[in-house]
Amino acid sequence: MSDYPTVSLIGSGRVAKQLGPALAKKGVKIAGLYGRNRVEAEKLAARLNTSLITDLSDPISSDLILIMVSDDAIPETVNALHPDFAGIVAHTSGSVPLQSISDRYRRGVFYPLQSFSFDKTVVWENVPFCLEAENDEDLNILGRLAETLSQRIHILSSEQRQSLHLAAVFANNFANLMFEYSEEILEKSNIDRSILHPLILETANKILMQTASQAQTGPATRGDMKTIAAHRKLLGEDNTLRSIYDTLTNEIYRRTHGKDL
Amino acid sequence: MSDYPTVSLIGSGRVAKQLGPALAKKGVKIAGLYGRNRVEAEKLAARLNTSLITDLSDPISSDLILIMVSDDAIPETVNALHPDFAGIVAHTSGSVPLQSISDRYRRGVFYPLQSFSFDKTVVWENVPFCLEAENDEDLNILGRLAETLSQRIHILSSEQRQSLHLAAVFANNFANLMFEYSEEILEKSNIDRSILHPLILETANKILMQTASQAQTGPATRGDMKTIAAHRKLLGEDNTLRSIYDTLTNEIYRRTHGKDL
Asked: Which residue, among A56, A113, A110, A42, has the nearest Cα to A85 in the 3D structure?
């Protein structure tokens, strides 16, 4: 247990509330916690059985500082740290480059690729951790910390991490928007949204076995113009949903048939 | 076992190859099978231990005829049947109205809402069956057949079924297209596509617990303009992916913030 790196936590938002307790539960020593929101920070520090850091510029003694604040607040947070901190200063953001951390410190990234909700406990074994550091020694420290929670460890450059973050917007936010549209269409027709849940699970499970391109089915892939025409009629003219339907249908058609619809 | 309706099957494609053996396995009596593709039909009939129907216009003796052919071929298939068939003539299509079946027969729809692949066995317990008929007696017969495979039975009108089919295109084909985009972005950055699988599963699982609208996260929901600007820069100008990113980001933004981006 004492082999784990010791960490100080900065933040009391969604990531901190999920990651902090998960690390503590695994026996990682939490040296202290700072949060700009004093009330939330006190609550989380108490929950983690650690001391509240009341002034960021106080000397901190741990192997790592994990910065779990909003992307915008990362530089100012780093700048407020004691200049002599000798450990790794790592943030947990998908889109902020390593270089955003002042080079006064050993810099690191400790990015758990997951969509965090306040109300849903994260299953950490399934979460990929994307790590970045400036040398193998620091990568090793970040790796030992990540391994307490998950075996899915990836070492990515800042550029790769930013591409991954963009890809995650498509796979998560945009796919979820498609689920929203489907729920709205069902609601208009008085059909319970749960009817689509098995298909949605199947859609996700399929691409564990094959690429999304191989998994694609439906009227556009088949070139089934009659069904596409019926869908267009159902959607009506001149509205956002119809224009999204047309764009995405054409995209799928083009991938299979090599030309526009 | 003898309480189950007896069925004759028409078709030897994807649906027939999945649904036929599943029904037979449950002890449903398959009275015969017809398929336009004679070779495939003979193979499937042998597999189902049933007789091959060589001429569609021959008298058929069963409670039901299940028509599992492409949407376009449904009317001609129905027209080729013996005019005196006294059972239910049902198709398995999501988008073809009940009225497409000649009113000479007792008409029915037996639509399993699933994306069928040749190479993946369907887990039938999870498949919603959408039924339609012209009276309760016939609905009851279709229901007893569906119940051999699944407890998820829904009675939908042709209009509802068509909306459901459209909703399924969004939830399945379009969501899958988003997965395709994400895989392409990862590939360009030399990141293995499996890194996104836990997030994709989480995205699907989340909406079993809450609506897709409640489940939404990400830069557009947060109004995180800096990340959106970084994504746009990464995507470049004047290409399809960028225009899809802009459209969908704006859609998500509008839903949370009540105005365009």
From this structure: A56
* Tokens 């890809």, located at residue: A167
Q: What is the pLDDT of residues A191-227, one digit of tens each?
A: 999 999 999 999 999 999 999 999 999 999 999 999 9
Q: What is the DSSP string of A67-136?
A: E-S-GGGHHHHHHHS-TT--SEEEE--SSS-GGGS-TTSEEEEEEE-S---TTS---GGG--EEEEESSH
Interval A224-257: pLDDT, tens: 999 999 999 999 998 999 999 999 999 999 999 9
Q: What's residue A88's pLDDT?
A: 98
Residues of A in contact with B249 (CB under 8 A): 169
- Is the separation of the CB atoms in A15 and A68 below 8 Å? yes
Tell me how far apart the alpha carbons of residues A159 and A97 are, in angstroms, rounded to a whole number.
8
Is the CB of residue A89 less than 8 Å from the CB of residue A108? yes
Give pLDDT tens digits for B54-98. Answer: 999 999 999 999 999 999 899 999 999 999 999 999 999 999 999
pTM of this prediction? Answer: 0.92
Contacts of B235 in chain A (CB under 8 A): 166
Total residue length of chain A: 261
Phi, psi of B33 (to 5 degrees): -140, 135
Q: Tokens representing A94?
A: 């998908």
Q: Nearest 5°: phi and psi at B231?
A: -60, -45
Mutation target for A interface from B18, B71, B165, B203: give the one with most A CBs within 10 A: B203
pLDDT at position B2: 53
Q: Do A172 and B95 touch (CB under 8 A)?
A: no
Tell me what the mean pLDDT of segment B30-46 comes to: 97
B87/B8 Cα distance (integer angstroms): 10
Chain A residues near residue B127 by CB distance under 8 angstroms: 198
Q: Residue B79 contacts by C-beta under 8 Å, 6 or more apart in sequence?
A: B102
Minimum distance, in Å, between the CA of residue B260 and any CA atom of chain A = 13
